[in-house]
Write a structure and sequence with these properties.
- Two copies of one chain form a homodimer.
- With 350 residues, chain A is of the alpha/beta class.
- Helices cover 43% and strands 13% of the residues of chain A.
- Chain A has helices spanning 15-22, 26-34, 41-54, 60-67, 86-98, 112-124, 139-147, 171-184, 201-216, 233-244, 258-271, 288-292, 304-319; strands at residues 72-77, 102-107, 130-133, 152-155, 166-168, 190-194, 225-228, 252-255, 280-282, 299-301, 328-329, 333-335.
- In chain A, strand 1, helix 5 (86-98) and strand 2 (102-107) form a beta-alpha-beta unit.
- In chain A, helix 6 (112-124) runs parallel beside helix 7 (139-147).
- The first copy, chain A, starts with 14 loop residues before the first helix and ends in a 15-residue tail after the last strand.
- The A-B interface holds A 11-13, 54-55, 57-65, 70, 80-81, 83, 86, 90, 102, 104-105, 120-121, 123-126, 143-144, 146-149, 233, 262, 266, 269, 288-289, 292-294 and B 11-13, 54-55, 57-65, 70, 80-81, 83, 86, 90, 102, 104-105, 120-121, 123-126, 143-144, 146-149, 233, 262, 266, 269, 288-289, 292-294.
- The structure holds a DNA duplex (30 and 30 nucleotides).
DNA sequence: TCAGAATATGTAAGCGCTTACATCTTGCCG
DNA sequence: CGGCAAGATGTAAGCGCTTACATATTCTGA
């Protein structure tokens, strides 16, 4: 006979409430829930009925504590404000779910200390593996990850000889390729609207890509006009406005991502500047927004979904004890749309 | 002297590892972490040093189990794919954080069974209160919430005499007001692109608002062309294309939200249809996208931030034992932009 | 019919933490 | 200088669950 606790439970129902109601032990309830095949059909039915009657929901903390596993992964992304990480993360999550793993997402607002905090929070909540964006973070954050023996993977960035497992594309090479196309169209006076480069290796790599392309084409990279501002449409618009005050004006404004580019394109309209007739604009990321802007944005296409899927697979393997895999490089191509064209003849009114 | 456990801990460091290293008991470590004022400065320093040395991160589950509180709230939103809920949720989260509460977010993909699942998951993970979107959900979901004694709040919807605490705006009235303006501009042939109305009381309310405005203006609501499709830009575009095949064509296409409207506007351009010259388009929600579309979208402005803040405050009060508050009605106005104008003269080419 | 295998269920020991309570210091006052 | 309040720290009992192990119970074949 199962133990018959006093049934004056005032709080939420627990396993033993269910056990009492079903007339079995807590062990049997636990098995009925987690390993149904080990329990008689009849018993199982009784247990399930009790679960339903009581509106029982297991206590995750207690379960994790006892079972010493959580089936939970974590991801810390810089921001949820825009859609940059949305699609990749969705694919990541979907793949994890197929393997019975829940994803917890936190955001760092591009602040290193906050990222460290969020990593700690996710560990605290039982994350068995973590997805992180880019390589830049505090030594303390890496130390914490090591001390806790948490497998982690850097995504949205692939670098030659990176010392950590990573999956992504070569930000530098992709931006260099796009810039080379811009230059090939005849543009000579270039500008870049970039996110803050401090603490953001992807932004730095993209900046370097622009410089490399200029140098390779025989242009002076020091002549690149640079506006640095946090990612947002409004900031992109403001930065674009500042660039249009330069003399001579740039004929092409490269943007560190599509959100900044959206601001640039919108601001161009407000200023009565034709894109791409007067000024060309390019983005980076190829989020949904890029295609519905007017004009539609020429941008670097990032393989969001594949990256998310691969990241999930790699982390699952690592949790299972696989050796840290080598970096996985994915291709980022160019999505050609309307916002990029040749410069105005005679270099424009600048 | 504190107990000196064997220090061959292979896994992540625990409280007693920290205690051993600092030369104190686990109770003292716990206090140093949670109630620093109860511990001598010297002891506290020693503990903190040990925490740092070991890379200790507390175990949330164990803590929740012992302390019987989690300081965690949950929210189940229909989707994270688009930005509809982003701003409100951000405000909700920010307000909670000010009060030391962490937010866990889950999404239901507009599926009732999945929502029930997610509610259960959040409860399982220790949510002490829940934010839900709209009133429509399974009886089982409500039963579960009651049985678990979880305070919850319905947001993004306010209804006359709703039987549950809610905070939001009157979807029906807002859509009716916008439709009345459309009609006042001279439009007579109206169409509506709406999300699936089954299981979505907001979508139904908005539909009813359109009908009510038509009836009030002496038009036959049965003449309203309705396209029902899940929220997405692509679906909005497809629905718009179908509507443009109607004879006679509608002169105004109302959309159940801004995402559908973005699809409609984009598709109009693709079809060579001028907005608002040939056809007017309106949205609902006033997300960031609305302002940067071409033409910018006339839409219903929703007080996202205030709603999020108020929701947080109400739920915090409820957790503290306050009686369920009466529904809180916020105002939703109209954001006038370029996509709405008078119908073409002579009713257009339809 | 019965031993022994296979299956179903119960018992009870923690998982890592918090906290009521007990114990030990310290400081202060008469 | 004793005694006691106040403060600092230690002890140990669980929180709700899983799971190794022990204990029925049923089934199988000779």
């Amino acid at each position: 006979m199962p133990p018959d606790r006093t049934d004056t439970a005032p709080g939420a129902p627990t396993l033993s409430d269910v056990a009492a109601r079903a007339g079995v032990s807590t062990a049997t309830v636990s098995r009925a829930l987690n390993a149904p095949s080990q329990v008689t059909q009849a018993t199982r039915d009784r247990v399930m009925q009790a679960v339903r009657d009581l509106g029982y929901a297991p206590n995750f903390g207690a379960r994790a504590l006892a079972a010493r596993r959580t089936n939970t992964f974590g991801a810390v992304i810089p921001t949820m404000d825009n859609a940059i990480f949305a699609r990749g993360l969705q694919a990541f999550q979907d793949t994890l779910r197929e393997h019975g793993v829940t994803l917890l997402v936190a955001s760092s607002s591009y602040k290193p200390e906050q990222e460290e905090d969020q990593i700690r929070t996710l560990i605290t909540r039982g994350a068995e593996a973590l997805l992180l964006i880019g390589h830049d973070r505090t030594a303390a954050a890496y130390a914490l990850l090591d001390r806790q023996h948490i497998p982690y993977l850097v995504a949205w960035a692939w670098d030659e000889g990176a010392p950590r497992p990573c999956v992504g594309f070569d930000n530098r090479a992709a931006m260099q390729a796009l810039t080379a196309e811009v230059i090939a169209l005849g543009h000579r006076r270039l500008a870049l609207i970039t996110a803050d480069r401090a603490g953001n290796d992807r932004a730095r790599a993209r900046f370097e890509g622009v410089c490399a392309a200029m140098t390779a084409a025989g242009l002076d990279a020091r002549a690149l006009l640079v506006e640095e501002t946090p990612y947002s449409i409004a900031n992109g618009a403001a930065a674009f406005a500042r660039l249009m005050d330069a003399h001579p004006r740039p004929t092409a404004v490269l943007c560190g991502n599509d959100v900044l580019a959206a601001g640039a394109v919108t601001q161009a309209r407000a200023l009565g500047i034709d894109v791409p007739g007067d000024v060309s604009v390019t983005g980076f990321d190829d989020i949904e927004l890029a295609a519905i802007l007017t004009p539609a944005l020429t941008t670097v296409h990032v393989p969001h979904c594949e990256m998310g899927r691969r990241a999930a697979q790699m982390l699952l393997d690592m949790r299972a004890g696989a050796a840290p895999p080598p970096g996985l490089r994915l291709d980022a191509g160019i999505a050609w749309r309307a916002s990029l064209g040749p410069p105005p003849v005679a270099g424009g009114p600048g």
